[in-house]
Specification:
Strand content: 15-25%
Shape: rod-shaped
CATH class of the largest domain: Alpha Beta
Strand order of the largest sheet: 5-4-8-7-6
Number of helices: 9
Largest sheet: 5 strands, antiparallel
Number of strands: 8
Radius of gyration: 44 Å
Structural class: alpha/beta
CATH topology of the largest domain: Rossmann fold
Order of helices and strands: HHEHEHEHEEHHHEEEH
């Protein structure tokens, strides 16, 4: 409360004595600014005509230094031009006249505090939204970087897979991969020549095209090695688990000619 008349300040104190506010008083604009520099204030009520600094000039200074305060003029002088200008500039929230009605004054001050609380909440939400947007932007950038790395890794993995396929395809040894559903998921050209009579093996159930000896190797876990004969030719069949060095799941069957295995 800012007023150059002590009796007005005393009357304002009496009017608000039962309200849940801490009432600070000043008898000039300069003293009001000093109090504001030392104390947190939500609502400022000022007389208009005071020596040294008018109420509107005081409230303009308050707006500049403490823009989140709610500022009101309480005056018996209707200097409409200066008050209207201050209201239009946003320096004054409301203009109240002297003499005042106690209930009306209390209601307007309570409304000013509600306005302040709502504005504070809006600023808090806006700050949280801005912070969330900033965090989201950072997360998006991190995700983009991660996706770029993943895409590069996929390209490298894809290229490596193609090379590996070409290498296995060119091997002069039959190589067959089966999954957990007993389906053939890979067979190179030599496997199709030896085991499929030149026909495609991919997608077939291995128990439809492989001998019982080879099926028994694929049907148990771990690494299994056995000599088998296929089409009159002797092979050493080696079945092992896939997935030790990759994400593949299933069994891998490799047939080595017996002469080659013996040489090793």
């Amino acid at each position: 409360m800012v007023d150059d008349e002590e009796n007005i300040l005393a009357a304002l104190r009496r009017t608000l004595r039962r309200e849940p506010y801490t009432v600070l008083v000043a008898n000039s604009g300069a003293e009001g600014l000093r109090i504001l520099a030392e104390r947190h204030v939500d609502v400022v009520v000022s007389d208009q005509r005071m020596p040294g600094m008018s109420g509107t000039d005081f409230l303009r200074s308050v707006k500049k230094a403490y823009p989140h305060t709610v500022r009101m003029v309480l005056s018996g002088y209707t200097e409409l031009k200066s008050v209207t200008d201050a209201i239009n500039e946003g320096a004054i929230y409301k203009f109240l006249t002297k003499p005042w009605d106690d209930d009306h004054l209390r209601a307007n001050i309570a409304e000013a505090f509600r306005h302040k609380a709502l504005a504070d909440e809006n600023r808090r939400l806006a700050h949280e939204l801005a912070l969330s947007n900033e965090q989201l932007a950072c997360a998006n950038e991190s995700l983009k970087a991660h996706l770029a790395v993943t895409e590069r890794e996929l390209l490298i993995d894809g290229a490596a897979l193609e090379v590996a396929r070409e290498v296995v395809e060119a091997l002069p040894l039959p190589v067959v991969g089966v999954d957990m559903d007993r389906l053939i998921v890979f067979a190179n050209a030599e496997a199709e020549r030896v085991l499929g009579a030149g026909g495609p093996l991919l997608g077939m159930a291995y128990d439809e095209v492989l001998s019982s000896e080879l099926q028994s190797l694929l049907g148990v876990g771990g690494t299994q090695v056995r000599s088998v004969r296929i089409g009159g030719q002797g092979f050493v069949a080696r079945a092992s688990e896939m997935g030790r060095d990759s994400r593949s799941i299933g069994r891998l069957l490799v047939l080595l000619p017996e002469t080659s295995h013996a040489a090793r």
